[in-house]
Structures
1.
Amino acid sequence: MTTNPFDDNPYQSPTIAAERDTSSLPAEDRDILIKFRQEIVALGALWIFLGLAAIGIAAFLLAESTQPGLSVTTGLVLATGCLYVVIGILACCKQIVAVYIGLGLGYLSVIGNLFNLNLMTILIIAALGILLIQAHRVTAWASHLRGNGVPLSTKP
């Protein structure tokens, strides 16, 4: 009868990911966790949608463009769209780093649009403002949950 010497190792890594029991969480933390999970997915979905829209517009302009200067700007829009799709996917996977990167890109977009004010850019700034407010709400909820020792990957 042979036994494995590692069976009783108290320092051994768990073989199954431990699920946190949310019934022990205070009601306020449980509500914040539910809001956080819903809103970070909504934010990620919006970033994916905007990124795909930017990619589609840039691809159309690249295909139809004959001006050499336009291709550089369109390439920048294409790259930004790809970046928004990636951070949107990461936000849907509950990666808070993606929200911080999205905040940085959002503020850069607002600053860039302020230099070219017209009706369309005012609408873009308003839409970006809504996204920025939402991203700040998500980061505030994440800070609250982390401060109370609740992992962001916890399922309610």
Note: The chain has one domain: 26-147.
2.
Amino acid sequence: MHINLRTARQPVLALSILLLLLPGCGPAGGGVTPETQQQPTTSPASSPMKPSGAAPAAPNQSLVTARVLSMAPDSQNASATRVQALLLASTAIAGKLDFTRGLVGQNIALLVQTHELTNVRVGDTIRANVTFVGDEHGGVYHATDTQIITTPTP
């Protein structure tokens, strides 16, 4: 079909018809229709000026070795303890991303269930499975299966 836009009496109508016939435009070509148009989403916790939802972290898990620098009760979770530790080593778990590899030699904050720290003291070297839980706006490193590797001599 050939439409001459210069001589068309109704240019808007002609343009609309032309757009419907172009590949990729219009309902048959995958264009935006009321059914496919993305509706804005808001949640009660977000304001209209903030982006809605963030992508959660990819599946990740590392086996880390770290020296405990300090321990304190977590202010948001009564059954957890915040452990500041010097990350000594990090090994990826098969099939998972290693989010702690780039942090070796740095201090890291770990969230550990308090019952796993019964015999752990400041200065101990521990080994634990660590997973980052969060998104691009922030998160926390959760440590599980915490074991004491060495205890400093007094």
Note: The mean pLDDT is 77.
